[in-house]
Structure formats: structure tokens, C-alpha cells
Design goal:
By secondary structure, the protein is an all-alpha fold. The protein has three helices and no strands. α1 (about 10-35) packs antiparallel against α2 (about 40-60).
Amino acid sequence: MERPDYGDPTISTTNTSGRTALREAAASALNAAGTPGLSPDIANPMRSWSFGATKLLLKMGLRSGGQSLNDTATQLNNDATNAQMACAAAGTHA
């Protein structure tokens, strides 16, 4: 797998924008998971997603790539699905 050229201003800017959005989303998910009275069935997948987003953020910041980055993104997607399913089972929306 070819590594991105981080010397390219477009790639560098996109990477920075992506990390910023991911950092904000991870903080929001972790904050929401701490809502008083929120069922652990919903809160736990949200915390897991936040942790996974933080891992992905670090890997992006270190400019790692390849399968490790893909595996982290896949787990992040799985955590998002689990949180959505928990919300649906509780009769609410994600």
C-alpha cells in the first residue's frame, strides 16, 4: 500500500481537518456516555467508540498507515454500529 505524500499541502490539510473532527467527535461521545441515568448498554459502546477514535487519531497524527490504520477504522465502525443498535433496542436514536 502506497503511503500518502504528507508534503502535499492538500493531503496535509485534509489530515489535519480529519484529526480535528475526530478529536471533537471522540470528546462528544465520551461526554454523552457520561450522561446521568444512561443505560450501560448504550454508554459502553459509546465509550468504546471514543477510545477507538482516540487510537485512530493517534495513528493519523503519527502518520501511520496500512493495515493497522484500516483495522482501527473497522473496529471504530463496529463500535458505532453497536452504539446504534443499543439505542434502537432502547427505543431511542443515536
